[in-house]
Design brief:
2 strands, two-stranded antiparallel ribbon, mainly alpha, 322 residues, 77% helix, homodimer, Farnesyl Diphosphate Synthase
């Protein structure tokens, strides 16, 4: 994956410069907060995905760079709101904006980033770009709301979990890849393939994230282990465990989970049971399956370094340790 | 003003139906919350303003109704976020969404409403409409951030106050009126006049709101009296008082304000001093001045019931008691 980052280093530097340019405001506090956001890491997975998909279809243009920057702005806006919702202290290994400036600023800077991104998208005067972006943003918020409506609902189904994941994470990645096709006026078939590619990469990404919440070493993840469990968020590994253990054990598990004051001992117990039932392996396998579906779409494109990079990225998304 | 509401009753009913149609989602919780929002009042000042401005320029179309609905959605989105920021329990005399479903849902439904509004605006395929709306949304969030950056800053100037008010309230009303001109392809001069009209109506509206925070009877306002003061928000009446009392009294006032645990006695004291220095009258006069500036723009339009209604509305905005 290091070689991939290297190949796109210059393109990504252009994106970084564009993000900086896009976010400049006449309100000093906005600049202070966006500076913090810009310098506190972030993998830039979505911009990279747009760059790669664009290169699959043709050359890079200034429009690609603009779009990559505004997609990252939209993504960051959702993170700022997520952090308030989850009461997260840490983001990308650094202090979350809400830990430094408070929830209020985290909400408002999220709104600012989103409105700026909309303005930039509008300035491109491309109807299809605007339609697909607006749809992705709506779906993302619907996914977050659906997830919250299943808070501590131990009866939630795997089908519902995949619906949430598709909406909250899949939709923006699907749109990201589709935009490459839109900018290059590709056939409908190619646009659909790109959308499918992004959607399944997104689903794989989210399952991997949800699994890492149970397995990652704390300092690598940049957030607290078992956080989803503590927040009452039921993700794939837990769903698997709940549907495979016996009734009496399920009841005991639910009681521990319902307790709210969740001890390290509880976490160790649940992790042990997950190992036993193969819940972690199950989730990892599911993530790989979706990465494979994504990679299959690449067959529609000629072989190129960019096609190979996308394939590597699909593997990286599921095999990463943070 | 009752006659005005009566004249636009049918148009407003169309807007109401459009809002309901726009906000329907496949996520049940979204529909539950938007139903609460739709049935818990709201003056629909912005939709009415768009209807009136449109009628000044020509007939009403389905595009006007769509725009009126989406402007109300954008406005409601900002209220949902404001309520989280201000920890408000009551909105429009009813329980705030955050009081019923919590802060998380209030944030996410705000995001949903905003993304839905953007999607609807994009579907109109009108570049100018989308540009002016995106600009208004950006300015609104900048205004809110600027206001927050002056939290408990007793040195803030009147100039800065007017900048905040223009951004956070003026910009959406300015855009609302401008959109009428855009839809009817009026001259640049008329568009500018409409923008100016909306901007100053918005400023008048906000000053009146800020003054009502000190003067309104609690049950009429649907929120707690003196709330701005308790929240450390410095508005025009207080700015006037602080800049007109003597140094030692200013110091005493600042100490009371800084105290956070603000008693009814403190509020009574401050209200008394405001009466003495004419701070309330000063703010009311300022609101009237901006309403007059707004009304002056009407001279560019032929006399009509709609022109008279806008003039009545400008007076209503500053003279209302809630």
């Amino acid at each position: 994956m290091e070689d991939v980052w290297q190949l796109y280093r210059e393109d990504l530097a252009q994106v970084e410069a564009q993000i900086k340019k896009t976010l400049t405001s006449e309100v000093p506090l906005v600049n202070e907060v966006t500076h913090h956001l810009l310098t506190s890491g972030g993998k830039r997975i979505r911009p990279l995905l747009l760059l790669m998909s664009t290169r699959l279809c043709g050359p890079l243009t200034s429009e690609t760079i603009l779009l990559a920057a505004l997609i990252e702005a939209v993504h960051t806006a959702t993170l700022l709101h997520d952090d308030v919702i989850d009461e997260a202290e840490i983001r990308r290994g650094e202090k979350a904006v809400r830990s430094v400036w408070g929830n209020q600023i985290s909400i408002l800077i999220g709104d600012y980033l989103y409105s700026k991104a909309v303005g930039q998208a509008v300035s491109m005067k491309n109807q299809e770009v605007n339609e697909t972006l607006a749809e992705a943003c709506r779906k993302m918020s619907e996914g977050e709301i659906l997830q919250l409506s299943h808070h501590e609902n131990w009866q939630v189904t795997e089908e519902e979990y995949f619906k949430i994941v598709g909406l909250k994470t899949g939709s923006l990645m699907a749109t990201t890849c589709r935009l490459a096709g839109i900018l290059h006026h590709t056939s409908q078939e190619i646009k659909e393939a790109l959308t499918f590619l992004g959607l399944h990469l997104g689903i794989a990404f989210q399952i991997a994230d949800d699994t890492l919440d149970y397995t990652a070493r704390q300092n690598r993840l940049g957030k607290t282990k078992g956080q989803d469990l503590k927040d009452g968020r039921i993700t794939l590994p837990l769903l698997h465990l709940l549907s495979h253990c016996k009734d009496n054990e399920r009841k005991e598990l639910e009681q521990r989970l319902q307790g709210h004051c969740f001890s390290d001992e509880d976490l160790t117990y649940i992790l042990g049971r997950m190992q036993e039932f193969g819940s972690i392996v199950y989730a990892q396998t599911k993530a790989r399956t979706h990465a494979s579906i994504a990679k299959k779409q690449l067959a529609l494109f000629q072989d190129s370094p960019h096609r190979r990079c996308l394939s590597i990225m699909a593997d990286f998304i599921v095999d990463r340790d943070h």
